[in-house]
Every structure is written in structure tokens, then in C-alpha cells.
Amino acid sequence: MGLIVLASLAFGLVAALLLSAAPFIRPGESELTGAVLLGFGLGWAMLAVLTSRFTDQPQRWAAVPAAVLGLGGLLLVVFGSSVQGVLNWVWPPVVLLLAIWMAVRVHAQLRSRSGRWLLYPVIALLAIASIGGGYETVMEAVDTRAYPMAGDLVDVGGHRLHLSCTGSESPTVVLEPGGGEMSAVLGWIEPAVAADTRVCVYDRAGRGWSEPADAPQDATQIATDLHTLLQRGGVAGPYVMAGHSFGGLYVQTFAALYPDEVSGMVLIDSTAPVPTTQPSAASSAAGDSSLMDRVSALVSASARLGVGRLYGQFDYDSLPPASRAQARASVAKGGQLGSTIEEYLLANSSMEQAATLESFADKPVIVLEAGSGSAPGWPAKQAAMAALSTNSAHRVVDGATHSSLISDEGDAAVTTQAILDVVWAVRNDAPLVG
Fold it and tell me: N or C: which terminus of the chain carries fewer CB neighbours within 10 A?
């Protein structure tokens, strides 16, 4: 009996993995979640069949979780996201009741001690997942009401991106957050810059209020979508672009693609570009995205169980209260987790694409470098980015870390001043001071 239980559970796991990798299953979060549920359903069906056929302890009750999981999985595979919103509310209480009923059945009908010890942890995980899923669904509904979107959603071709602009005067500053982040992490910087000039923040695809995109989100795609967003959002250039960490790659790629529309840059402890002698390799890696899409979609699905929300409660402490709450609510969502995985998988391509900016002429550039916590060779890379322009400044912020240049109020004030210094240089067509 113990071997049959083990084999059935293993069969369900293998079936879930194979179905989630099957080419006939679309690599969307809903469809892959459905594939996993179908696989687990097959495992429970196997338990019902094998115990009835080969033992004197038939576990026919296992046909019930097989049917419930199989039906939910089939609905998700066939109808995708159109039914997921409903299932997010229905699934948690149904599965919790199912887990309790399954535990009672195992206790009453399964005499094998090893079989029980194998099934009880699985049933417990099912119950925990249902509780986490229910909590996440409720909290996402609460977050939607508590943190209404500022700005607009703008169609950039197949998906919409969130754009919010405040302040007045020119030039317009466009802020680009770092890897895995959304616009709320710029809560110290955005209002401070808006006091002097117009500033726009946005969320990359799958982040914050922005919708996910089908195309791989490397630096070129991100810069292209941002350009479309600004054009369709009615934000006229030329712009002062400011990017933190990975955001610096996207700022440099934007400047390479649209040189006449960028009047100045601030690179905030930016990830450094990496030139390549084989540009086709980058495009090939970006194009072969099937596995990456499936991995990021499965990670997104895990957020439906509250995984991201648990992680988010330990981050963003130093942001202003409203920004902190928005960032924690955003990081809890599946789209943010999935898009973050994709972003890091495409990092090499993005670094190569940013390297196409070989010169920024005499336009003002300030490179901010964190004074502590940097890896060996980091200062030299920052200096190399400052050398893109003959009108540049390389400032090392003593005591600052990579993240504190954005998240800490004092260090963020230094970042804000650097942005305003570039704004001043652009307005006055003058060299940078200091």
C-alpha cells in the first residue's frame, strides 16, 4: 500500500511537470496552473484505481480530489484568465473543505501507516495552499480599493502601461526604477523633482498597475515600449532620463535608440553595459523564450498563494508610508514576480543592448555611485559610463548603498539633487557644476 501511495503521488508530480512543459499548453499563468492541477488530479485518480485493483483497501475517495482538481485544471487550460478571477474566489474554500474531508477519509479507510504518513503532509499542503490563496485573493481586492491608481493606463500595442506625470516646467524627467521594482519605490524622489520640473514615472510590463506583455522584455523592448508610452501619453521630449540599477541599462538603450529625444541622463549606481562581438547571440537568447515564459508564469502562479505578500512585508521599510504600502502590495502580485524572473533571465541581452550607446556627445550626464557595498571593479565601470559624455560628473555618495540611493530619505535627496543639476544644465545649455 505504501508503495502504491508513493507511486501515485510521484505520478501526479511527473504528470504536472510534463503537462506544464507540453507545447500544446499555452505558456500563460492560468493555463500552466491548469496543467499542474490536471497533473495532480491524475495522481489522485491513479491512487483510486491502483488501490481498488491491487489491494484490499480501496481508496475510492481519491476520485473526488481527482475530479475537483481535474475540473479546475481543465477550465483554466481551456478558458485561461477569463475564468481565473472567478476560480480565485471559489477555489480556496472548496479546496479547504476538500482537504479536511480527505483527511477524514484517510483516517477512516487507510490502514497502512506508511500510506498515512505519505498522504497527511500532502493534504496539509493542500489546506495551507487554500488558506494562502484565499488570503491573497481577499488582500488583492482590499489593495485595489486602498491604493487607487494615479495617472493613466496607455495602450502601447497589445498591452497597457501605467504612466503618471506631475509637476510642470521643462525639461520633463523620466524616472526608471531598478530591476524587479515599480514606480512606488521612487516615492522620495518623484515629489521632490516635481517641485522644480515635470516628472513622469511608469511601471514596466507586469509591474504595479501595468499589464503583462507577450514579447520578451529585454532593454530594447522596454525602451521601445517606453517611447510609445510617452508619445501616446502626450509627454513631449526631449527628456532627462534617470535610471537606477537595471533601469540605467534601459535609459542608455533609450538614448541609443532615440538620441534626439534625450537631453540628459542620471545613472544611479547603474548596472554597466557589456559590449559584445556577437550581437546575434543576444537576439537569439531573447527570441528563444518559451522556457523562460513558462518559468516566469509558474512563479507568477505561486504568488496566488500569498508567497509574494509574505516576502514583501520584510521590505521597503524606509520608503514614505504610502509608497511603502503600494510597493508591498505590488510585489505580492503574480505579474511582478514573473516579470522579475524574466528581467534577470534577459540581463545579458539587456547589458549588450545598452552598450550600443557609445557616445552621448556633450549632453549632461551624472553618474551616482554608492560609496559602500560595491563589488570589485564597480567604480571603474561607473567611471566608464561617465566617460560617455564630455559634460559629465561622477559622484560617489559616501555611506550610501545600492538600494539606499532610492529608498533612504537622505540618500534619495542626493539623487534628487543630481537629477535637478542635470535639469539645470539642460535648461541653461550649460556645463554641469560639480
Answer: C
